[in-house]
Amino acid sequence: xxxxxxxxxxxxxxxxxxxxxxxxxxxxxxxxxxxxxxxxxxxxxxxxxxxxxxxxxxxxxxxxxxxxxxxxxxxxxxxxxxxxxxxxxxxxxxxxxxxxxxxxxxxxxxxxxxxxxxxxxxxxxxxxxxxxxxxxxxxxxxxxxxxxxxxxxxxxxxxxxxxxxxxxxxxxxxxxxxxxxxxxxxxxxxxxxxxxxxxxxxxxxxxxxxxxxxxxxxxxxxxxxxxxxxxxxxxxxxxxxxxxxxxxxxxxxxxxxxxxxxxxxx
Length: 266
Fold this sequence. Notes:
By secondary structure, the chain is of the alpha+beta class. Helix content is 20%, strand content 35%.
């Protein structure tokens, strides 16, 4: 079984180290391989960019790098499509690498004084010599929830996403807010409903661009559906076996929906 071990070093890659190569919002794949040797990727590196260490995959050092052109026999796969539809995709590796690259791009300069930052020698951070402060990768906590009402669950279709999945209510945690309060607020704002018995289930990093999705079950406590139109196009209550198209199991939404189906069937 493949093993992914995140880590940090400022040592540059060796010729046979693996490069997770990104072009825009796509990752390069060569047949079933997601890593390209540094000896091949180096010539296509975007000017002014650099490879960034992200960890080890099957004992092989892995870096992420932004390329300006395709390497031989490689095809670009949109990252979102890879995570949604590729059953054998190394999701943790791709998610970590994309978030690390986004952070590296966004913190080239100190947010306090504007001076250019450099790599921290011992931990995953960019360092400002003038302010003597580190700039760590950002994480944005989000809640996502399945609401149960008797023998049915609430599923909703986004008004902003083109794919016609019915998914779950989700949103960002606000400063000073508990995750349970965030669940109640997001559900109330987007659907007009009240929930109770909020219970944590699972989590998933989601690199668009740096979210940590925290998954919950909750029980319906009252109210009628009043959809926030700029967020939701449709919503309804569904029984197991009667669901509309839902996200795949590679996503936390897909796993939560299927876990609720099992709970309802039981």
